[in-house]
Amino acid sequence: MNISEKLFQKYNFPVPRYTSYPPATSFYTGFDNANFVEQIKISNNSQTENISIYIHIPFCTQRCHFCGCNTALYQSDEKINQYVACVVKEIRNVAQYIDKKRLVTQVSWGGGTPNSIDLKYIRNIMAVLKSEFQFADFAEIAMECSPAYLDFEDVDVLAEIGFNRISLGIQDFHLEVLNAINRLPPKHDVAQMLRYMKEKEFRGLNLDLVYGLPLQSVESFRENIQQIIALQPDRIATFSYAHIPWFNPAQKLMDHHRFPTPEEKLKMLVTAIELLSENGYEVIGMDHFARQDDDLAIAKTNKMLHRNFQGYNTKKTTGQVYAFGASGISQLDGSFAQNLKQIDHYIQAIESNQLAVERGYVLTGEEILIRDTINQLMCNGTINFEQIAQQHNYSYEEFMKITKFDAAKIAHLVADGLVELTQTDLNVTPKGMLIVRNVAVAFDPKFEITKNKFSTTI
Ligand SMILES: C[S@@+](CC[C@H](N)C(=O)[O-])C[C@H]1O[C@@H](n2cnc3c(N)ncnc32)[C@H](O)[C@@H]1O
Ligand code: SF4
Predict the structure, then answer these.
(1) Most buried among 82, 303, 370, 390, using CB within 10 Å?
(2) Is the CB of 146 under 6 A from ligand 2?
(3) Cα of 64 to ligand 2 centre, how many Å?
(4) Of 315, 347, 362, which residue constitutes the final position of a domain?
(5) Residues 319/136, Cβ–Cβ less than 8 Å
(6) Distance from the CA of 299 to the center of ligand 2, in angstroms?
(7) Gap between the Cα atoms of 337 and 356, Å rounded
(8) Whose CA is nearest to atom 7 of ligand 2?
(9) Is the dihedral of CA 153, 322, 360, 23 positive or negative?
(10) Residues 71 and 103 in one domain
(11) What is the structure's pLDDT at 3?
């Protein structure tokens, strides 16, 4: 694919990320534990029937200064014990409301660094999940791991517990960049580690890179991409560095370093897309890539991709997400519920025999239609207006009215060959998929161009 920098320059204006619709910033605190229980019961009769589980382990042995995740430094063993006991209690509490006939098709462990705590805790929580729920035989059990603490024996243990997917945070291969972000390098050779994981039948192996970090240059990022191609992981994520010092003040500790300019960041992204496309990787979403034989690439071809807060997945393994642990966000068909973010507040709530919901959101039927339209566009780049309207019990005319879609809103995208539009269908071209957020906003009735509210595409 020949990608022009001009395309990104032209369309690099602030639009929502659409990690969810409505975005997490619109969750409200009036949504409480009782509302969540009510929503769990409703979710038993909603689509999809499948269950996805997210477990948040908010601990890290060392905090990277660039990090934007909800993490805390590893505290005492006692604290970990207490936290894990709360996660177990929360699982049992929520599980009592879930229809036992439903199948778990996905379990994702994120953080923080789930592999920074003793794996006996992971084993314990997985055993509880297995006793509370029925698992599909094709269930994907995935963990985000830091390679700084991962040993070959840990891979053995994870395989034995039932894990079959691993994602490793690389961020950058250059030691000076890792030092600048206060991050430890991988403990073992990454190529050997990946080979070992493949031998142990792990699939969908993913490596994360971040562009826009201090001391990176276009050339050094090109080396990262070349190195990652040589490693041949199944999947690659290249995230744009998010600078959010109000959330993580530690990012200010990197202020004295030279950061890449926005122009350099753009070149890094274009380099990643071009090199990876030339070397057998499919663009899955703007910052995700998968080898052509990977499930995600196959699902993309078959228009069966889906996305949730945990990233891209296939419609086969997609489920409504029930999240456990501090800050976890449950994503049910008709609602969101987010747990208390601070570890101590979360523990306090669970230990006093309550759930730990801090805020949430109940979607109207119209919002569900808008959400599914935006998701379908962001993942699969195609909409048949009549079909999606009917799936949600609306007419074509109602669909147009609810989404406030108007062909004029995307006339410039059509003229640039990024979108094909007829009376009945909209198709985003492969090049258009790189700026698909700019297409999605045309179906978001609440979207207004407010420069400071959203991040730019890159
Ligand atoms: C929970 S971490 C992955 C697991 C493990 N903690 C690690 O660092 O290896 C999630 C990923 O989010 C990405 N990330 C974290 N902070 C970010 C930021 N400020 N901007 C962009 N991406 C970020 C990184 O690529 C990181 O690998
Ligand atoms: S990037 Fe990973 S290891 Fe580093 S602080 Fe964030 S969650 Fe922890």
Answers:
(1) 370
(2) yes
(3) 5
(4) 362
(5) no
(6) 29
(7) 10
(8) 112
(9) positive
(10) yes
(11) 60
Q: Looking at the domain assignment, is residue 107 inside a domain? A: yes
* DSSP letter for each residue of 200-254: TT--S-EEEEEES-TT--HHHHHHHHHHHHHH--SEEEEEEPP--TTT-GGGGGG
201 CA to centre of ligand 1 in angstroms: 25
Q: Which of 57, 82, 58 is nearest to 71 (CA)?
A: 58
Clarify whether residues 404 and 267 are in a common domain: no
Print the domain residue range for 399. Answer: 365-443
C-alpha 46 to ligand 2 mean position (Å) = 35
Mean pLDDT (the chain) is: 94
Spatial distance between the Cα atoms of 89 and 124, rounded to a whole number of angstroms: 12
Do 11 and 456 touch, CB atoms closer than 8 A? no
64 lines ligand 2 (CB under 6 A): yes
pTM: 0.95
For residue 251 and ligand 2, the question of a CB distance below 6 A is answered with no
168 ligand 2 Cβ < 6 A: no
Can you say whether residue 184 is alpha, beta or left, with left for phi > 0 and alpha for psi between -120 and 50 degrees? beta
**Residue 397, number of CB atoms within 10 A of its CB:** 10
User: Among 59, 63, 167, which is best to mutate for testing ligand 2, by the most ligand atoms less than 8 A from CB?
Assistant: 63
The pair of structure tokens assigned to 76 is: 């005492």
Q: How far is CA 407 from CA 8, 177, 231, 404, in A?
A: 22, 45, 44, 10
Single-letter residue type at 277:
S
DSSP class of 16: -
Mutation choice for ligand 2 from 65, 67, 115, 181, CB with most ligand atoms inside 8 A: 67
Q: What are phi and psi of 222, to 5 degrees?
A: -60, -40
Reported as a single tens digit per residue, the pLDDT across 230-287 is: 999 999 999 999 988 988 899 999 999 999 998 899 899 999 999 999 999 999 987 8
- Give DSSP secondary structure letters for 338-377: EE-SSHHHHHHHHHTTS--EEEEEE--HHHHHHHHHHHHH
Distance from Cα 65 to the centre of ligand 2, integer Å: 8
Considering its fold, how many domains does the chain have in total?
2
Q: Are residues 50 and 90 in the same domain?
A: yes
Q: Which of 178-182, 205-209, 427-431 has the lowest mean pLDDT?
A: 427-431
